[in-house]
Sequence to fold (318 residues):
Amino acid sequence: MSAAVIFDALLALLILVLAWRAVTDPLRFRAVVSFVALGLVLAVTWFRLSAPDLALAEAAVGSGLTGALLLAALRRWDERDVDGGESSERGEP
Amino acid sequence: MTGKLSAGILASGVFGALAWAVIRLPTPAPGLTDQAFGALDASGVTNPVTAVLLNYRSTDTLLELGVLLLAVVSIWALGRSTGAGFGRPPGPLFAGLLRVLLPLLVLFGGYLLWIGAFAPGGAFQGGALVGGAIVLAVLGGLSPSRFAGRPALLRVGLTAGLVVFASIGLAVMLAGGWFLDYPDGFAKTLILVIEAAATLSIGLTLGCLFIGGEPTADDRSEPSS
Fold:
């Protein structure tokens, strides 16, 4: 019983820390990694709240796909910085 | 600095109010839980979440599929995706991993779709896995133009969920019921058909969101659309 309480308290604390780091980390890549980790911890939390459907959706969409989207956006951002801040109109015919 | 301070105070205040509201929620929670479980036998599925999503509140899910389609249309309106893809695959091992992983992801997506009738799972989770498979394939070097293949076919896949869902809703109206009011005994079959189409559409949609921009089969020579 008390082990469960400690686990839940750790989850709640981890959510706050990861959310804080996802918002404030000066390094964007680390912020994205924090965000993905936050999604996974949230999925575990949904599971603890007996909402396994939400846990699945959170892990797959909230963490996995959103994380992939953020990483892809980050990569394009870096490419733009390398180009000298000027974005070329990508793929415009 | 004062801006940060006031923002912090405001955020703490909102957090405190929300926490207070959550703590004061009555237990057991009032709601439609009893009705939802009571009608489960007639809903065609035994997983209450799927029953809510695809039967009791199916109009909401139908509109959600519309939102997903709108997202793709909006992104495609912003421009085309380059034919080059996302650059080099990370390494030779990645292609080998994909060969094992991609069929497994699609298989597991189908499994989640099937199991959604009686356990946690369903069209959205299955679709997310299919979308993840597309993301991995693109990262592994699949170019968006190859992914598009035949653009008309891709569009059919993207709209399949919404079209099938709405068609079934209208068909049961022709049969004499309300919109999406599944006739007795057909609920499970109809829900499975809708979810299968939705899984395909959701998977393709999420993949298209990652690719960003309309993938075209032959990106320079096509006149329009």
Residues 187-211 of chain B form the longest helix (25 residues). Chain B touches chain A through 26 residues (CB under 8 Å). Residues 93 and 99 of chain B are 10 Å apart (CA to CA).
